[in-house]
Write a structure and sequence with these properties.
Largest sheet: 2 strands, antiparallel
Order of helices and strands: HHEEH
Helix content: 55-70%
Strand order of the largest sheet: 1-2
Distance between the termini: 105 Å
Structural class: mainly alpha
Strand content: under 5%
Shape: rod-shaped
Length: 140
């Protein structure tokens, strides 16, 4: 009977150790689950805040680009519809071309501007002026 009780005691001790290990494992997993739940809630709140901000910004953007608001801002800056000859297109090679939709007529030419001679190159194919880098960044 001594060997039976000894085997029984060893198996009982081993069972208790396994029970303790599994119990600690379950507690650790539960703590991790709770931590992840808090982190998930925090991220969901952040997502909700960003979505609310995006919705507010979209409403503000839509308010700012209404035609009546744009007309008011344009009037404040002295802007209006383009006059004939004011619209230009820049080609892929950098050449400035007159818009095909708005032709320059002699009547729309500003006072004091002479009509181009037939020998002169057309004004529609001029290259844009280049600014010096020093003036562009504000250094003297």
């Amino acid at each position: 009977m001594g060997t039976l009780s000894r085997e029984w005691a060893i198996s009982m001790a081993f069972s208790l150790v396994l029970l303790l290990v599994f119990g600690l494992g379950l507690v650790w997993l539960n703590i991790e689950r709770v931590d992840l739940a808090y982190e998930l809630n925090k991220m969901q709140r952040q997502i909700d805040e960003v979505e609310a901000l995006a919705a507010k910004l979209e409403v503000e953007r839509n308010t700012l680009i209404t035609p009546s608001r744009l007309r008011e801002v344009a009037r404040d800056y002295g802007l209006g519809p383009a006059r004939p000859g004011q619209i230009r297109r820049v080609g892929p090679d950098g050449a400035v071309e007159a818009s095909p939709l708005v032709a320059i007529s002699d009547d729309s030419r500003p006072k004091g501007q002479a009509k181009a001679s037939p020998d002169a190159p057309p004004a529609a194919k001029t290259k844009p002026r280049e600014k010096s880098r020093a003036k562009a960044v504000g250094t003297p």
